[in-house]
Each structure stands twice: as structure tokens, then as C-alpha cells.
Write a structure and sequence with these properties.
Layout: H1 5-15, H2 17-29, H3 38-50, E1 56-59, E2 63-69, E3 76-82, H4 109-125, E4 130-131, E5 133-139, H5 148-154, E6 165-176, E7 180-182, E8 185-188, E9 192-199, E10 203-204, H6 214-225, H7 227-232, E11 239-247, E12 254-255, E13 258-267, H8 270-290, E14 294-300, E15 306-308, H9 310-324, E16 329-331, H10 342-345, E17 350-358, H11 379-389, E18 392-393
Parallel strand pairs: 3-5, 3-6, 6-17, 7-16
Antiparallel strand pairs: 1-2, 2-5, 4-18, 7-17, 8-15, 9-13, 9-14, 10-12, 11-13
Helix pairs in contact: 1-11, 2-4, 4-11, 6-8, 9-11
Length: 396
């Protein structure tokens, strides 16, 4: 009996595992921060050239795009991977740990790029299995505003090629290797950055009546901001507001003249997001004014909510079930983390899925953005096969 396209894709991906591990470890050892992915981009470009796949470099910085054509009419779908790393000192003690001190692939973008390279190799060498075209994007700067996705869109990567759907995958250690996770509809939150400065009047700690102390004012603002979620947001709309940085450069006997704060606001409703921004500003300004101080509240708008297209996600999960086994396809919960893939989801039917990469038996349980994050590398073959299967597979 002739092997099905999914069986061939799975077999091809497993055969590539050793090669994929080498690629992933190279990228992992030489991580680069957002907007600095020069060598990573060059390495990926060289890999594509070796595969005989035409592509364009220096897109929106160090991004790479290209079009793989099966030679047969069919859908055009897009596959996206990100390339940048994080400013984290790696503590995994692996032989392939980062050689760039203070920079680490702690969010798995090395895995994403490797899986996309593997998928393109499979599709390029097995064009009889699929039809249509695959538009691929190796994207820079996912980790830093304004996000490489927004820049690639602004540069016009979809002006001439408009895919019928776009897919991206992301490592997920809470899911075991060999599995994949999907969620239809709203999946990930928007993310905005808060920069707040309370300005009072400094003075001697022994005579506070002669000063306007910004420290208790800042404390009151922090407390009042929590009512945004508990009293202003609808209970049915997930929202998070966190102040993660507070600087008051005073001393034991010195009242500072100002307090500086940074934080984040996240939600799963774009209309409420805009309303919340106005409430945040009002709380900051009016609270400070009631104590005779002033407050500057700057909100840097970040990534929007990520919405997975229902039909696109259903079809992707169905393919994953054929490829991995139906019992290995999991339904994901809503996440308050954010992703610049959300920009794509605003203009193209999208599916952002999770690749199971965890293995508790091997001690691989650390979450992304931790200095001990790693994956079970067997997931590389699964990820490459998953991405390849998102093409317009010939089913008969």
C-alpha cells in the first residue's frame, strides 16, 4: 500500500532529526538580540541556498522571505518563524549553551527557525505531495516593540503575495514532546507598556511637611491602578495590570523629588484595551493632583490580541491529528502572554499553535524566558513535520 503524504512527511522529518539538531544547536550557541540578528540571518540564508531555495534577505532588518512553488495550482499558505533571542545569561550547562554571554535563546526561536528550515527541505524535495505555494518568513525582532511582524507588514511583504492562511508554531514545555496544542478564536493577550513618573517636591526626611513626597503618592497610584481590573473591567474580560519596576532615588533621610515606575497592561478585548488606557491616565493624573503633585503617564501600545481563525485552526488541528495521532492534539487555554504574530492574525486567517517540547523524565520542564530553559530535541522532527503538513497537501 502506498504511503500517504502525512506518513511520508513524518518519515522524512524523522530522518532529518540529526541534521535538525545540528542546526538548532548552532543557532542556539550564537543567539542575537532583537534587531541584531545579522549572523543568524546569514546562517539561515546559507542553509536555504544549500537547499536550492530562492529567498530575499534584509527584509525589515534581518528578515528573510521566499516563495516555494510546487508547480501545481492550489492554495498559497504562509509559514513564519522568528529568530531573535533574549537578554538572559544562560545556565543550562549544556554543550551547546550560548557562547554570547548574556544572550540566550530562552524562548525557543532557535527551534522555530530550525523547524521551518526542516519543513522547507521536506516540501522542496517532495513536491508531489502538495500543491500551490508556500510563502515563508524568517522574522526578526519578535521580542521587542514594535515587533518584527509589524515591520514586515509595513514593508509590504504581503502586497504581491496574499496567502489564504498563515501558520506559526511556538515551543511549549507544559506539553510533552510528540504533542501539539491548538485553540480557536481569541488565544493571546494584547500587551502595552506603562511608563509612569510621579513628580513631587524633594526635601529632608525629618520635615515632610515642607515637601511633596512622591513615594506614598506612587504607592497610592499602584494600589488604585489595581481597581482597573477589579472594578472597571467586565469580569468576563481577562485583564492583567502589573507594575514591575519602581525607582525612588531618595535615602534614609532624603525625600526624592520623583518616583519612576514601569509596568504592563494586558487584555483580550481591543475595545476595552482603549478604554483602559484612558482610565490608567486618569488615575495617575488625578491621584497625583489630589496630593499636590503631578504625574506623567506614557503608554506605549504594544502587540494586539492574537486571534486564531476558527476554520484555519480546525484544519490545522485535523492535520496534526493525522500526523501525530488524535490523542496527541490538545486544546490550549487562553494565555495572557503576547506575541507579535498577532499582527498577522489581524489581516490573514491565522493559526498560532504550540509544539510540545517538554520531557519531565529528562528534567526538561523549565518555562520560556527562564535561564535554564531547554527542549527535548526530538520535538524538532515533530515541528518540521507539522509545519510541512500545513501546506496544501494532496489528499487523494
Amino acid at each position: 500500500m502506498k504511503n500517504t503524504p502525512f506518513e511520508i512527511i513524518r518519515s522524512e522529518a524523522e530522518a532529518l532529526l540529526g541534521e535538525l539538531i545540528k542546526i538548532r544547536r548552532h543557532i542556539h550557541q550564537y543567539p542575537e538580540l532583537s534587531f541584531q540578528e545579522k549572523e543568524t540571518s546569514a546562517f539561515i540564508s546559507n542553509q536555504l541556498t544549500t537547499l536550492g531555495i530562492e529567498h530575499k534577505t534584509r527584509v525589515a532588518g534581518y528578515g528573510i522571505t521566499g516563495l516555494l512553488d510546487s508547480g501545481k495550482p492550489g492554495k498559497t499558505i504562509a509559514l513564519r518563524a522568528d529568530m531573535d533571542a533574549l537578554p538572559i545569561l544562560e545556565k543550562t550547562n549544556t554543550e551547546y549553551a550560548s557562547k554570547n554571554t548574556g544572550v540566550m535563546h530562552a524562548c525557543g526561536h532557535d527551534v522555530h527557525s530550525t523547524c521551518l528550515l526542516g519543513a522547507l527541505k521536506i516540501l522542496n524535495e517532495n513536491k508531489e505531495l502538495w500543491q500551490g505555494k508556500v510563502f515563508f518568513l524568517f522574522q526578526p525582532a519578535e521580542e521587542k516593540l514594535p515587533g518584527g511582524a509589524s515591520l514586515m507588514i509595513a514593508e509590504g511583504v504581503f502586497n504581491e503575495i496574499r496567502p489564504s492562511a498563515i501558520f506559526g508554531l511556538h515551543v511549549f514545555n507544559p506539553l510533552p514532546v510528540g504533542s501539539a496544542g491548538f485553540r480557536k478564536g481569541m488565544y493571546m493577550a494584547s500587551a502595552d507598556e506603562l511608563y509612569i513618573t510621579v513628580k513631587g517636591k524633594g526635601g529632608h526626611g525629618a520635615v515632610p511637611e515642607l515637601a511633596i513626597d512622591p513615594v506614598p503618592i506612587a504607592a497610592q497610584i499602584i494600589t488604585s491602578l489595581q481597581t482597573l481590573v477589579s472594578r472597571s473591567a467586565k469580569p468576563t474580560i481577562p485583564s492583567v495590570l502589573t507594575i514591575g519596576k519602581v525607582l525612588a532615588e531618595g535615602a534614609t533621610n532624603v525625600i526624592p523629588s520623583e518616583v519612576y515606575m514601569e509596568g504592563t497592561f494586558r487584555t483580550l478585548d481591543e475595545k476595552w484595551r482603549e478604554e483602559a488606557h484612558e482610565i490608567i491616565r486618569r488615575i495617575c493624573h488625578e491621584t497625583a493632583a489630589s496630593f499636590g503633585a503631578t504625574c506623567e503617564a506614557r503608554i506605549e501600545k504594544g502587540y494586539p490580541c492574537l486571534v486564531n481563525d476558527n476554520e484555519t485552526t480546525r484544519e490545522a488541528a485535523e492535520k496534526a491529528g493525522i500526523l501525530l495521532g488524535e490523542d496527541q492534539v490538545k486544546e490550549l487555554e487562553i494565555r495572557m502572554a503576547s506575541e507579535d504574530f498577532a499582527f498577522y492574525s489581524q489581516i490573514i486567517p491565522s493559526c498560532f499553535l504550540r509544539l510540545g517540547t517538554g520531557n519531565p523524565e529528562k528534567g526538561i520542564t523549565a518555562n520560556v524566558h527562564q535561564d535554564t530553559f531547554d527542549i527535548d530535541e526530538a520535538a524538532l522532527a515533530k515541528g518540521a513535520a507539522l509545519m510541512a503538513s500545513m501546506a496544501d497537501i494532496i489528499m487523494n
